[in-house]
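Two proteins follow. First one:
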Amino acid sequence: MILVRLGDKIPLSLMLYADDNDKVVKANLITFYPRDEWVSEILLVSRGDGIYDNTDYAMPADVTYVRAYYDVFEGDGITSAGYYRSEEIFALEKTNPQFVNKITTTFNPLTDVQEVLAWVEKDGQRLTAVTDCVITVKNSAGTTVWTATDAAPNADGIFKVENSSTVLTADSNYYVIIVITAEGVARTSIQSFITVG
């Protein structure tokens, strides 16, 4: 039994005797539940020492499992070599990547300028090929206090926005909505927004 995540390649593999490197090995794949059908005949490649494999076929996203039937033929691809095996490949749900927007902020009391740096992480790794950052700061009532945008980040994937028109007070609660486009989708995160009095 093999476990494969949805959409990942199926590691089709068959081991014969070490000197059986001139055979023709085929795998017939049949899907099961909810779509029961023959889907493909795949030719495995000889890697030497009797090992044949192929990883070109991806696990279908709409089935529970696939059964692979292996047939071994002589070099003509027609005459059976008298070897047959089957195995089941079960689908595992593929984990969706997690996108999280993050910020760091400073306030300069001499100039009354609030600076915000923002970026997006995918599964904990910062992305650089991102666009269109929108920062919206709101008070505890949900009213927008200020908003700013930056269309393009620096080379490290960091956006920078500033606000000097609205001074936040240290005795109030605020939160920030961060929107950054990553991999063609606008990703949204919300977190607390710290002020310094």
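Second one, unrelated to the first:
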Amino acid sequence: MAIRIMKTFYERRETAEEIEFQFKYLPLANLLFFLAIGASLAPCGRLANRTLRICGVLLLLYIIGILPVWMELEKAMRSGSVLVSGSKFSCKNPLKVVISKK
């Protein structure tokens, strides 16, 4: 079940020529990050502390879920076979990474 939840953070398609990753929830992760920064700058109170903790836990879960993909992308970037398109701030045009298997 934990692996199934981790795979919801990205979508992977593999063909004979390429591997494609699409990060659909990256805009939400960015929003959580900025919300955590805002909560840390806010005056200390119950709401700010809870918001910071919740955002921190959710961001940590996101990072753990996306870590295997990051490792694979880092390896492909070293070989120079990566094509990146889309935006990390857009839900309509999400970040898409294509690794060619040449």
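SUMMARY FIELD: The chain has one domain: 2-100. Helices lie at 2-6, 26-41, 46-79.
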